[in-house]
Amino acid sequence: MMNRDLSRTTLDSFLMSIASLRRTDIRPELSQVRVPVMGMYGDRDVVVDPGQWQPLLSGVPHTRVERYRTAGHFIMLDEPKQFVDTLLNFLNSEAVAQ
């Protein structure tokens, strides 16, 4: 699926998309989030600043943050078992079920 999607994307459009994300600041809106949130971050991410978990955690009080020390941007490829186990645990948690 990723190969198919990437084959339809030009490098320029991908880079423009990443650049627009870097200019977008959603911190003022984080306090309005009312659903359970889990942020998953690879500490070796070179696409998104791995430190972005900090504003999420301080902005949304009911946030769960999972960090993957050896993963990059695509955690699901770098740490597939841990990624799936963590995601299923979150989705099956009482916080999400309410």
What does this structure look like?
- By secondary structure, the protein is an alpha+beta fold.
- Helices cover 47% and strands 12% of the residues.
- It contains 6 helices and 2 strands; from the N terminus they run ααβαβααα.
- The chain has a two-stranded parallel sheet with strand order 1-2.
- The N and C termini lie far apart (32 Å).
Entry summary:
The protein contains six helices and two strands; from the N terminus they run ααβαβααα. With 98 residues, the protein is an alpha+beta fold.
Residues in helices, as a percent range: 40-55%
Order of helices and strands: HHEHEHHH
Separation of the first and last Cα atoms: 32 Å
What's the Cα radius of gyration? 15 Å
Order of neighbouring strands in the sheet with most strands:
1-2
Shape: globular
Instruction: Give the low-pLDDT segments.
Output: none
Strand content: 5-15%
Look at the structure and give the mean pLDDT: 85
Number of strands: 2
Overall structural class, as computed from helix and strand content, comes to alpha+beta
Q: DSSP helix count?
A: 6
Largest sheet: 2 strands, parallel
Entry keywords:
98 residues; globular; alpha+beta; 2 strands; two-stranded parallel sheet; single chain
Ordered list of secondary-structure elements with their pairings:
Blueprint: H1 2-7, H2 11-23, E1 37-42, H3 53-59, E2 63-68, H4 75-78, H5 80-91, H6 94-97
Parallel strand pairs: 1-2
